[in-house]
Amino acid sequence: MAAKQDPEALAAARPLLTDLYQVTMALGYWRAGRAHDPAEFELFFRQCPFGGSFALAAGLRDCVRFLRAFRLRDAGTPWPARRSPSLRPGGSPPRCSRPSPHGPLSPPPDVQFLASVLPPDTDPAFFQHLRALDSSGVTVRALPEGSLAFPGVPLLQVSGPLLLVQLLETPLLCLVSYASLVATNAARLRLIAGPEKRLLDLGLRRAQGPDGGLTASTYSYLGGFDGSSNVLAGQLRGVPVVGTLAHSFVTSFSGTEVPPDPMLAPAAGQGPRVDLTTCVEAWLERVCAHLGLGVQDPHPGERAAFVAYALAFPRAFQGLLDTYSVRRSGLPNFLAVALALGELGYQAVGVRLDSGDLLQQAQEIRGLFRTTAAQFQMPWLESVPIAVSNNIDEEELARLAQEGSEVNVIGIGTSMVTCPRQPSLGCVYKLVSVGGQPRMKLTEDPDKQTLPGSKAAFRLLGSDGSLLLDVLQLAEEPPPQAGQELRIWPRGARESCLVRPAQVEPLLHLWVQQGQLCKPLPSLAESRAFAQLSLSRLSPAHRRLEQPALYQVALSEKLQALVHRLRAGASL
């Protein structure tokens, strides 16, 4: 696979985005003559997040970008060893490191840095091996992004030379775990909100760093959000970007400002230009009379801010209503500007609330929009969208989405990007075969035991297209057939059972073979549409967010027999 760079890969494609023990194991494999042994790992999770019954698979596109760019950087000449205060197996105690010859902001090349943290007597031939590494020997099978995923079913299967696929563990976990967690969180929020409400990601400023922010904005969109405030996510990933104005814009105006050009042409482009400021002041008197307010009640600075924004965005004017007082200032100022624009053929696109009882205020504002629209014969005003934000979590979202709510757009920040109900998906990356021989982790904890061998995964469906269960089997077994009876072992059950699927779907697709991309990755928008289709196939009992029915994952008879045999052999 050619080491191609693209703008999206610049942050992620760093081979040393890994744990040191991956490197120490790599040295151990190399020293044992096992670097090229064919091996296979599986990446999966053990429990569904957030107490639900499903997850959405995500992060594959980032994994592919990482693999396409995977190559350890090398200066080409030996670099004087310097010791790092990090943990170093078998080395002498850390010494003070000399200043980097690459400058304080430029890290040393990858291979030279690894030489500085491994024992000083490490064979130079090992570093020669690292210099030659790329992903040309790696094969990846995976669930398509947006697929429903369940415990124990691989999100990724990664095969290739043992040393190399071991090195890939940490970066692949890093790229898949958070992306899938965020996509699942977004899917839950979409299920709560229903299909009609617009959901916007506003979490960049609350995210765990820039990479977390970009990942959250990307995969919240895949999970069902409609857009993001994150401009970089729009530039790099094609996420629709949204945004208007903040309270700082409003409070920056005092009301004494004079716009350098207050004139605005009609929306149709014909007719004389109008002084918008003068027009707004005339409308303010009429609006205040209608609302039973004095013209001195609305804040003049807020009105000046709205006028300035309307002059900049006459076709996309939106008011932020709660800087001072929604009822006595924000609403009348917005209406005055919106109606002035309406006279010129423009229509305001919305208002936003960011404090107080959002549901109640939205009801009151919608009622005033309706009476004002009737009073001034501006029927479009009735349906101006109402957007809300302000630390919205699942419980508040359910309240805002209830039947009869007048809220149209919901911005979610902290609860989207930080996933407060469960901050980690807990994905693992486990060895399942080496040299064609199955490997199994037993451990003292049965929940941490792994399933051995190279496997295939299938989804069994009923005659109505409903999901019955997922079945894991050894790759060498013939796939299940629609209409044929199949004996399976549900995970955790003591006995087998029979199932007769009406349809069978293979789950793991071949995306990368020997370092080459086998087929184009779906676009983010296509994966988003697939995620919504996948969720629609879940039964109501499985889609339920609280105390859902557990979705069944089962083993084939042959895989169950292999597990039993390896357990028995380990106990001898």
Automatic annotation (TrEMBL):
What cellular component GO annotations does this protein have? cytosol
Region span, Disordered: 79-105
**Domain (Nicotinate phosphoribosyltransferase C-terminal): residue spans on this chain:** 455-562
What SUPFAM superfamilies has UniProt attached to this entry? Nicotinate/Quinolinate PRTase C-terminal domain-like, Nicotinate/Quinolinate PRTase N-terminal domain-like
Q: How is it modified after translation?
A: Transiently phosphorylated on a His residue during the reaction cycle. Phosphorylation strongly increases the affinity for substrates and increases the rate of nicotinate D-ribonucleotide production. Dephosphorylation regenerates the low-affinity form of the enzyme, leading to product release.
**Catalytic EC class:** ligase
**What does the record give as EC number?**
6.3.4.21
Q: Spell out the Pfam families in the cross-references.
A: NAPRTase_C, NAPRTase_N
Task: Name the pathway.
Answer: Cofactor biosynthesis; NAD(+) biosynthesis; nicotinate D-ribonucleotide from nicotinate: step 1/1
Source taxon at top rank:
Eukaryota
* Gene Ontology molecular function, alphabetical: glycosyltransferase activity; metal ion binding; nicotinate phosphoribosyltransferase activity
Q: Where is the composition biased (Low complexity)?
A: 80-100
User: What is any one GO biological process for this UniProt entry?
Assistant: NAD+ biosynthetic process via the salvage pathway
Span of the signal peptide:
none
Cofactor(s) needed by this chain = Mn(2+); Mg(2+)
Q: Which family does it belong to?
A: Belongs to the NAPRTase family.
- Mind telling me what this protein is named? Nicotinate phosphoribosyltransferase
Q: Which organism is it from?
A: Molossus molossus (Pallas' mastiff bat)
